[in-house]
Amino acid sequence: MARIKPQALLLQSKKKKGPTRIGASTIVLCNLVVALIVLSIMATYRHWYKRSMDQTEDGKSTFEGTDVRTFVDLKKYDLPGYAILNTSKGYITIELYKESSPEIVDRFLDLCQKGYFKGMPFNHVIKNYVIQGGEYQGLGAAEELISHAKLHLQLGTSPKHEAFMLGTSKIRLDSKGFDLFITTAPIPDMNDKLTVFGRVIKGEDVVQEIEEVDTDEHYRPKSSVGIINVALKREI
Predict the structure, then answer these.
(1) Which of 11, 25, 93, 229 has the fewest CB atoms below 10 angstroms from its CB?
(2) 101-143 residue pLDDT tens
(3) Taking the C-alpha atoms of 178, 184, 185 and 187 in order, what is their torsion angle to the nearest 10 degrees?
(4) How far is Cα 27 from Cα 38, in angstroms, rounded to an integer?
(5) Which helix (H) or strand (E) holds 231?
(6) At CA 37, angle to CA 31 and CA 43, rounded to 5?
């Protein structure tokens, strides 16, 4: 067996233990890969950042371009549009005028939710004229209502206050009182006293039945008749 010389063994040992050298081309390639990864990350970040900003601007411009009245209309749309009066004679369905009388309707809905009309009596029933419930806040109170009732047949008709309309006396919105009028005939002589905020769309026969109750000389019902409760509906 041939013997290896000590010098040859030393050279072989250095070759085995020495670190492997990396070529210049490999280093350049690695640097390019790293640079490409960094550029890709930066491009992705810029893309999503720009997209997020665009969405924010679109949302802002949509908000700024929306008329305030649109939000008011949306609010009106969400409010109940109908009130069902459960009376001692039956049910009366009212369509509320949310657009033409928004403040009155808002107040009426608020009072309904608080139970204000629960058990409210009809204090005056005037045939071929009006049914009135609650505390009358008009100028001159009940006496003026009665005097108008005696004169209304002598006056012309008004398309504003037709029969089967729901109204309330024209008072300040901060007043604690709130009365209801259901007309049973056109009442033009009360145009300056009443605000119409709804109309009867079902239960006209119930209104007419209430109209037929016996009353005294002051048009006060001799037997109790009134509203039991009120239910609010968005649709019917």
Answers:
(1) 25
(2) 899 999 999 999 999 999 999 999 999 889 999 876 544 445 5
(3) -10
(4) 17
(5) strand 227-233
(6) 135
